[in-house]
Amino acid sequence: MLNDNVPAGSQILPFYLADGSSDVALIRGRIASVGPAASTIIERHAYPDLVGCLQAESLALAACLSSTLKFDGVFTLQAKGDGLVRTLFADITESGHLRGYCALDEDDSQLAAMRLAQPHDEAVHIVPLMGGGYIAFTVDDHATGGRYQGIVELDGPHLSDAAMRWFENSEQTDTMVLCAADKDASGWQASALMLQRIATEGGDAEAAAGAKATSDDAWHTAKTLLSSVTRGELLDPALTPEEIIFRLFNSMAPHVAPARVVTDQCRCDVQKVESMLSQLSVEDVNDLADADGTLLITCEFCKTERLLNKSDLPNWQS
Ligand SMILES: [Zn+2]
Fold this sequence. Notes:
The chain is α+β, with helices and mostly antiparallel strands. It folds into 2 domains: 11-264, Hsp33 domain, CATH 3.55.30.10; 270-312, CBS domain Like (Alpha-Beta Complex), CATH 3.90.1280.10. Helices cover 33% and strands 30% of the residues. It contains 10 helices and 14 strands. The strands form 3 sheets. Strands 1, 2, 8, 9, 10 and 11 form a 6-stranded antiparallel beta sheet that branches. Helix 1 crosses helix 2 (49-66). The N and C termini lie far apart (62 Å). The chain binds zinc ion (ZN). Zinc ion binds at residues 266, 268, 299, 301-302, 304.
């Protein structure tokens, strides 16, 4: 297969679907599989499993959505709620470097009840975990310096529903997205699969009507086929993303493109830490430092700890 050289659990695979009788692309799709990266990110933070599952879904979803956008920079999914999970964050660069973290409320006394209330056979229900709030999808394009953001309300039921609403609002393109994550003995498995209808070309009225009918049929069939995929299939480590696509959409002449590798990789470095500290007031830096002037700064994403002395900071005035 085309992507045998790319690790099955660490990739974003673009594909398109036709109507079976021709090779004309009618639907574009992406499947992201990010189990190993999700495992190391979640283990580093030691989240409760239910929160880990939401984080794993968010990582798969960010990877999947990012690959539909043209940018040279960072794609971010960030949700803010007033429930147990205050912040849910996942971002990915155009090179497939993935990061994530969650910030939890100190009061986790409802966690056991939330776990019981979650259905076992579907994606995490976000509202019981996150409460009310919003989800922002942001593209920071470093090539142009542009920033594009779409915000939708946090009303679930699943994270993927928020993504579909974002597409509905921003691109008015028919889009269907599914996420799945679960933990087994080998770690987390996490996948997201999306389909997007390709706008039909113009032409004369008769040709346009024919093209629209073909597109309508293909979209209906593709949605039905996607709805038939089970969590077991999406999360089966023995199936590659390519095998899932061919198994699921066999009747729609699937064509796959080269996959992009996804890795758990942070972008922090000492210069970024210094630059962050140099924006704080003298009082704030003094509050963070111990009596010797030493600061211990831990990266929220990768948990790397760095020891700095405030006298080493650029522009530091004692
Ligand atoms: Zn880091």
